[in-house]
Amino acid sequence: MHLHKYEKIWLIFGIASLVVFLSVVGISAFSHGHTPAGGMDTIDPKKVNETAPFDNPGVTQLDDDTYQVAIVAMAFSYTAPELKVPAGKEIIFKVTSTDVVHSFTIDNTKVNMMVVPGQITTKSYTFDKPGKYLILCNEYCGSGHHFMSTEIEVY
Ligand code: CUA
User: Fold this and answer.
1) Distance from residue 140's CA to the centre of ligand 1 (Å)
2) Looking at domain 45-154, which CATH architecture does it have?
3) 3-state secondary structure at position 34
4) Rounded to an integer, what distance in angstroms lies between the CA atom of residue 115 and that of residue 72?
5) Banded pLDDT at 69 (limits 50, 70, 90)
6) Protein residue closest via CA to atom 1 of ligand 1
7) 102 C-beta closer than 6 A to ligand 1
8) Lowest mean pLDDT among 8-12, 77-81, 142-146
9) Per-residue DSSP letters for 86-132?
């Protein structure tokens, strides 16, 4: 195969650019210790109901300014008894799934987490305003996907 001189130059330039850009992304990710946004905690999806904090899902007060909310997602609901949390305090959401990939999305907030079986996804959020917030699944998870929602009350 014959390559024109300019083709060769541009090919080398393109490949070299790719190597440089990927190196920059890779090296900066490792040097800053980047991890997936929701953390890297894992869990046995078959033992979710026996593993803390999911053996006791719902709201737990950790200290004066911090609350933890543990939620299990499954087709097609969230185990979320009486979700009530205060405004102005740090709420740490921990979610996992027992079956397929779901999402845990709280309307009108920046909480939008993937819920993956075998993984615990964590996100911290502070609600500014009291009110009722819709929680819904925005990953297509099966025939009942559009029924998968619940509510959290912020007081
Ligand atoms: Cu769960 Cu869509």
Assistant:
1) 5
2) Sandwich (2.60)
3) coil
4) 9
5) very high
6) 102
7) yes
8) 77-81
9) -TTSEEEEEEEESSS-EEEEETTSS-EEEE-BTEEEEEEEE-SS-EE
Q: What is the DSSP letter of 21?
A: H
Distance between Cα 76 and ligand 1 center (Å): 6
Specify whether the CB–CB gap between 71 and 97 falls below 8 A: no
Least reliable range by pLDDT among 20-24, 54-58, 120-124:
54-58
Q: What is the pLDDT of residue 105?
A: 95
Measured distance CA(17)–CA(135) in Å, rounded: 43
| Residue 139 three-state SS | coil
For the CA atoms of the chain, what is the radius of gyration? 22
Question: pTM of the full predicted structure?
Answer: 0.79
Q: What is the pLDDT of residues 36-65, one digit of tens each?
A: 778 888 888 888 888 888 888 889 899 999
- Any ligand 1 atom below 6 A from CB of 95: no
Residue with tokens 């026996």: 50
